[in-house]
Amino acid sequence: MKVADNLLHIKQQISHACQKVNRAPDEVKLIAVTKYVSTERAQEALDAGIINLGENRDEGLLAKWEVLADKPLWHFIGTLQTRKVKNIIDKVEYIHSLDRISLAEEINKRAVKKMKCLVQVNVSQEESKHGLAPEDVLDFIESLRPFENIIIAGLMTMAPFTEDEEQLRNCFRKLKGLREQIKNCNFDFAPCNELSMGMSNDFGIAIEEGATMIRIGTALVGETGEEEKK
Questions:
Q1: Which of 73, 120, 200, 228 could cross-link to 131 by cystine, CB 3.0-4.6 Å?
Q2: How far does Cα 87 stand from its chain's mean position?
Q3: Main-chain phi, psi angles of 190, to 5 degrees
């Protein structure tokens, strides 16, 4: 299907989820995850009116950057190796996967502007997932105070791949609770307004639980070869 057709359907789902909890649809940023599709398909997403594109590897982002440059707002959503920060730091609007001090040090050193970062939290405590344990998040964010080129814009998590709605809701609620705890600290370097949570299979529930960013790949732009993964 065309991206525009998929987008229409997803916007309806976003609107429905927002109505259920008295939120406005424009409170939710839709990120088209283009990591498994061609540059042409990413361009189709832009043509459909999508502004935010997400990539999880520096190679994929750089390949699309050669054609699309800064027309989209780029989100780096995957695990970021410290040695690869220099490749993407001047091209992305957000980094969704800050999870260690060594990475913060490199981002701070390489940043060409204040970099908006989201701290990745492994709420589900799955060994296959990256991110901080929930109980470590506040201390980690406090340790970022000296890094003048980093703004902690929010938190990110990946929920378990399950059809158990209550398990998903618990995951998203825990992340929102953490976000509120951090906001209440009133850190000037960590406004922590964003909640990046929800993917193709669970974004409606994520919106109901407070997501401000949803990362949609398969349901929006489809895939070429490999399926959208957690």
A1: 120
A2: 19
A3: -140, 70
